[in-house]
Design a protein that fits this description.
Layout lengths: L1 E12 L14 E12 L12 H15 L2 E2 L11 H12 L6 E7 L5 E4 L3
Parallel strand pairs: 1-3
Antiparallel strand pairs: 1-2, 2-4, 4-5
């Protein structure tokens, strides 16, 4: 069984490695959405995969680091594409959530990235 919890944050960034004149090379912001998925058999006693509150506890410090910040200034996010951001979050969550199965980062209503680990 796989469950997920969704989180939001606001942040600014620019992509330094895009071609000259590309709009994403300019400073801009997004309302990001992150879905954190965990997967495990349903526990017979509790009836759940895990407490949604445990997912929240693992994510709160990361959201506090990202929310209303300039992503390019955060260590490891000097080129904060969706692909780089989702791996950055994964690397910081995998020890806290050993049954982490997927992360989806959306930077717009229609664009995002899903990562399931290496």
């Amino acid at each position: 069984m796989e469950i997920f919890r969704e989180f939001t944050f606001e942040a600014a960034h620019r992509l330094p490695n895009v071609p000259v004149g590309h709009k994403c090379g300019r400073l801009h912001g997004h309302s990001y959405r992150i879905q954190v998925h965990v997967e495990s058999p349903v526990d017979e006693k509790t009836g759940w995969v895990m407490d949604f509150g445990d997912i929240k506890r693992a994510m709160v410090p990361l959201i506090e680091t990202l929310d209303h910040h300039y992503l390019n200034e955060i260590k490891g996010l000097d080129n904060p594409t969706s692909e780089v951001l989702v791996r950055w979050v994964w690397d910081r969550l995998r020890d806290e959530l050993p049954i982490l199965s997927a992360l989806t980062v959306r930077e717009t209503c229609t664009s995002g990235c899903t990562y399931r680990g290496d």
